[in-house]
Specification:
7 helices, two-stranded antiparallel sheet, alpha+beta, L-fuculose-1-phosphate Aldolase, 254 residues, 16% strand, 38% helix
Length: 254
């Protein structure tokens, strides 16, 4: 049951790991069940993000209790359950420990519009600073969800990130963009600090162009192909049809 969704969750874990967001067996990704919003599928504890498969994915309820699957549940399940509870618009949650984002969170500085990736976070990236410990209680999960509010991502200070997306594809793309935006600012800081930024009048358009569902899907499909090339470098590449032209103004393909 839910094989298609599980396969996409597996692909999401592989994409995150391939792009450097794996942390041995830490980090997790989840997706809400389409026919039961109070339940979700989630990566189990004790394995890497890239080691998920259709058999070891677990099912969890909105209280954070495992209700299906043979593998163990992550202690930080409450990041997922409480964000999903608080945000009906969110269907996928990611928590990872990307190095640049963790280092950036230690600077106690706002994310600046250094490059395109930062435009997704033009309303700012909230910082959860109540604790730098793991989020292992429902109360702490609620506090993380409150810090996230209506933003796409929150920095957990000296710890990691939590991301919420309408889909697995969007959540993965947001997590990757946040890490890249933090990396760009760290590079600018190491050179004395950024002096010029994305123009204020351009930020809104950049944000729309970088957070389209077709782009999320295209990036996700690319990362799936990249993973296949990673595990089988000698395999013949599959035929790839270029994406159709997409107009932001109309929201339609050509």
């Amino acid at each position: 049951m839910y094989e298609d969704i599980k396969e996409k969750l597996v692909d999401g874990g592989r994409a995150l790991a391939l792009e450097g967001q794996g942390d041995y067996v830490a980090g997790h990704i989840s997706v809400r069940l389409p026919d039961d919003p109070n339940k979700f599928l989630m990566k189990p504890a004790g394995i890497g993000l890239e080691e998920m498969n259709l058999k070891n994915i677990i099912t969890v309820d909105i209280e954070g209790q495992k209700i299906g699957g043979v593998s163990n549940r992550h202690n930080e399940v409450y990041i997922h359950s409480e964000i999903l509870r608080a945000r009906p618009d969110v269907n996928s949650v990611i928590h990872t420990h990307p190095i640049n984002a963790v280092v950036f969170s230690s600077l106690d500085k706002p994310l600046q519009m250094v490059g395109n990736d930062a435009s997704t976070f033009h309303r700012g990236v909230p910082v959860f600073s109540e604790t730098t410990d793991l989020i292992t209680t429902q109360e702490r999960g609620k506090a993380v969800a409150k810090a996230l509010a209506d933003h796409p991502a929150v920095l957990l200070r000296n710890h990691g990130i939590a991301v919420g997306g309408e889909s697995i594809e969007q959540a993965v793309w947001i997590a990757l963009k946040l890490e890249r935006a933090c990396q760009m600012q760290l590079m600018a800081e190491s050179a004395g600090g950024a002096k010029v930024f994305v123009k204020q009048e351009d930020i809104g358009d950049k944000a729309k162009k970088s957070n389209r569902s077709d782009l999320n899907n295209n990036v996700f499909a690319y990362l799936k192909r990249k993973w296949m090339r990673h595990i089988c470098p000698m395999c013949a590449p599959e035929e790839v049809e270029g994406p159709r032209t997409f107009r932001v103004e109309t929201g339609k393909e050509e």
